[in-house]
Structure prediction request, 131 residues.
Amino acid sequence: MRRLHLALMLLLIAGVSVAYARGRAFSTANFTPPPEAGVIYAVVDFARASGREQTTVVNVEWGSASRRVTIAPPYRGTCAETTPSGFVLKMRHPRPDTVPMTVTTTGTLVRGPYQGDIPLELLNACYHLVT
Prediction:
């Protein structure tokens, strides 16, 4: 009888651990910028729970620099439950170098980091620019 209880407890703990790990998935992208200076963009959809946007965290590791940004979604209006919705992260690439960067987020990376023109997602009312 004790072995049965022990086996059930271990199975329950394993199930909860797997469910927690799935709920806390991260989206990661690596990018090596071109040698010329410019602006780097990354498009991120908000993390979701029960169909609603959740606060989303973005970590950027770039050489010896790091930045952590926490973005709260709009909890009112049409964008609160609309999909897709998110934000565009804008970063300056001031020096001509090729230091690689890693972007990790609790949301979904729609378009990983790239250097170039402003992304078309900014034309959507449910996306906003974060600098």
Remarks:
- Confidence is low (pLDDT under 50) at residues 14-23.
- Helices lie at 2-23.
- Strands lie at 27-31, 38-45, 47-49, 52-54, 56-62, 65-71, 86-93, 101-105, 108-115, 127-130.
- DSSP finds one helix and ten strands in the chain.
